[in-house]
Design brief:
Layout (H helix, E strand, L loop, with lengths): L1 H15 L4 H15 L5 H11 L6 H14 L2 H13 L5 H17 L2 H18 L4 H12 L9 H10 L3 H7 L1 H22 L11 H8 L1 H15 L5 H19 L5 H34 L2 H12 L3 H18 L2 H18 L4 H15 L7 H10 L3 H24 L2 H9 L3
Helix pairs in contact: 1-2, 2-15, 3-15, 4-14, 4-15, 5-6, 5-12, 6-7, 6-8, 6-11, 6-13, 7-8, 7-20, 8-20, 8-21, 9-18, 9-19, 10-22, 11-21, 13-14, 15-18, 16-18, 17-18, 17-19, 17-21, 18-19, 19-21
Length: 426
């Protein structure tokens, strides 16, 4: 038990002194390896093995695709279509923001990217129509998390690699949960908007939807090409990510003619930075997780849970509460890579399907995007709306509660996650 004691002790120490999570993970793992007298080269081998995977190649491609879509005019067309669909109903623009997050999430695979793309367009529009700044930012932050549940999804790719599960099957399994989470947010937005008197304030002339769809047909086709290609077996998720980049370049340069050299350079810069950040997190989290597995921590946790209760329902409640708590303080990718080798064997031993567990895990991480102190989406929407995190937190609480109930439903009813994969023969 010396290694886990040193690992958690050093991890806690680095967090207390304010070190970034990736430094805390890497430094604590390095300390354990050095204390055990292991060769430093073994850490380098872990780093290599963590990223030496064909599916990992999808990450930079999906990140680049999401960045390019903002510069290629695809994002604003998707948002406009969503706005027209909402019409003058109560909370219409809020509904548009959620719908736009679903559209963009079906392309980018990233929560923060979805929040930034949708928020830049929707938050100012919502404020202009009488929505409070804090509510607009809270709703955008909450709906932005849909980007990691609705396929394609970067966290699902990471889980698939970590758990050695089919990424295509994970993408299929995420469709219904993503739709349910979006519906929950829409219902919450409608009830709050009805009470506050929020409406879109705009009626659209007949034919407006047709005109918006005609103008945005190439934007609508993006998720169709990407997801259709994956689910039909035409190409793998990794190949789909590369196809999405070339599709976006083609549309931005030759169709919309809005993609400039400046936009391309900014997209490449942000992709390089984000990809490097992800790979460093993967290395540190893999080393940390391997130490936990080598010291038999998963079986100890399983035994402890079974001593508390034999009820799978109660165990799910404990696990979800733990995942959401961890998600409040740890980055999503680090959470997935550390928690998966620890909790997955426990849940599988209780009869839970690995794909089902992965979807619940990603959904819990989705909630973490809109909860302080580390909610990335909250910081993005806060900077766009120019309001404090505290103001957003209060307005985001109803949406967090709604999403929590939906996640519980997904956990207790495995068919929500597994029905579509089974339909496709997985």
């Amino acid at each position: 038990m010396t290694a886990p004691f040193i690992l958690f002790g050093m991890f806690g120490f680095f967090l207390l002194i304010g070190a970034p999570i990736v430094v805390a993970l890497g430094a604590s793992a390095l300390t354990v390896y050095l204390a055990a007298g292991d060769d430093f080269v073994s850490l380098v081998q872990i780093a290599w093995n963590a990223v030496d995977s064909f599916p990992i190649m999808a990450l930079p491609a999906f990140i680049l695709s999401g960045a390019l879509m903002q510069c290629a005019g695809i994002s604003k067309r998707l948002v406009h279509i969503a706005e027209v669909l909402a019409g003058p109903m109560a909370g219409g623009l809020g509904f548009s923001a959620i719908l736009a997050s679903m559209f963009f999430g079906a392309i980018s695979g990233s929560g923060p990217a979805t929040t930034a793309a949708v928020g830049m367009l929707m938050i100012p529009a919502m404020v202009d129509r009488g929505y409070s700044k804090s509510y607009s930012a809270a709703l955008t932050a909450s709906s932005g998390g849909l980007g990691v549940v609705i396929p394609p999804s970067i966290p699902m790719v990471i889980y698939g690699v970590t758990a050695s599960e089919s990424i295509t099957k994970l993408f299929l399994a995420g469709i219904l949960p993503g739709v349910l989470l979006a519906m929950g947010l829409m219902i919450g937005n409608y009830l709050i908007s009805k009470k506050k008197g929020y409406a879109s304030g705009e009626t659209h002339a007949p034919g407006t939807l047709g005109k918006a769809c005609k103008d945005g047909i190439w934007a609508i086709m993006a998720p169709v090409v990407i997801l259709g290609g994956i689910y039909s077996g035409l190409f793998t998720p990794t190949e789909a990510a590369v196809v999405s980049v070339f599709y976006t370049l083609f549309v931005g340069i030759f169709i919309h003619k809005e993609l400039s050299w400046k936009g391309l350079k900014e997209s490449l810069n942000s992709t390089t930075w984000l990809t490097g950040r992800v790979l460093i997190i993967m290395f540190a989290a893999t080393a940390f997780g391997r130490i936990l597995v080598e010291n038999d921590i998963p079986s100890m946790i399983a035994q402890s849970l079974l001593e508390v209760t034999g009820s799978l329902t109660l165990i799910w409640i404990i696990v979800i509460a733990f995942l959401i708590f961890v998600g409040m303080f740890m980055e999503t990718l680090a959470t997935i890579m550390i928690v998966t080798p620890v909790l997955l064997p426990v849940m599988v031993s209780l009869g839970v399907d690995p794909i089902h567990f992965g979807i619940v895990l990603v959904c819990c991480c989705e909630i973490g995007f809109s909860t302080p102190p580390l909610g990335e989406n909250m910081f993005i929407s806060s900077s766009i709306a120019k309001v404090s995190i505290e103001e957003i937190t209060v307005k985001a609480l109803p949406f967090v509660v709604i999403q929590l109930f939906v996640v519980m439903l997904i956990a207790f009813v495995p068919g929500i996650s597994l029905w579509i994969p089974e339909l496709f023969g997985y």
